[in-house]
Design a protein that fits this description.
Elements lengths: L8 E4 L8 H4 L2 H12 L3 E9 L11 H9 L3 E10 L2 E13 L8
Parallel strand pairs: 1-2
Antiparallel strand pairs: 2-4, 3-4
């Protein structure tokens, strides 16, 4: 996890924040905020992967997906798959490459 100050990472990991009922109510803004907070530690070219981006696209991951898909700081694409235990339920990964911004420290 990105906890060391001053370090720049080539592979991003935004900690899993749960999908329990208490988190679901505020998950949309929290996940987008976590992505923004992590940017300070990401080097240009860092890869950030969000699992379950298909099943939670309209719910808990909506804010995060809107952010990485709409931000000029990321090049993002959805990789379709199915749930690991149910081949009949569509799911997928959102794979985003942080392209950075001018003046970034990393």
């Amino acid at each position: 996890m990105m906890r060391r100050r001053g370090a720049c990472y080539g592979v991003g990991y935004v900690p899993y924040m749960g999908t329990g009922a208490a988190w679901r109510r505020r998950a949309v803004t929290r996940r987008a905020a976590a992505a923004q907070a992590a940017e300070a530690s990401l080097a240009a070219g860092a890869v950030v992967v969000a699992d379950n981006a298909g099943v939670f696209a309209a719910g808990g991951l909506a804010g995060y997906l809107d952010y990485v898909r709409g931000s000029p700081r990321y090049r993002s694409r959805f990789v379709p798959s199915t749930l690991e235990w149910r081949d009949d339920v569509p799911d997928g990964l959102e794979v985003s490459v942080y392209v950075g911004e001018e003046g970034a420290k990393c």
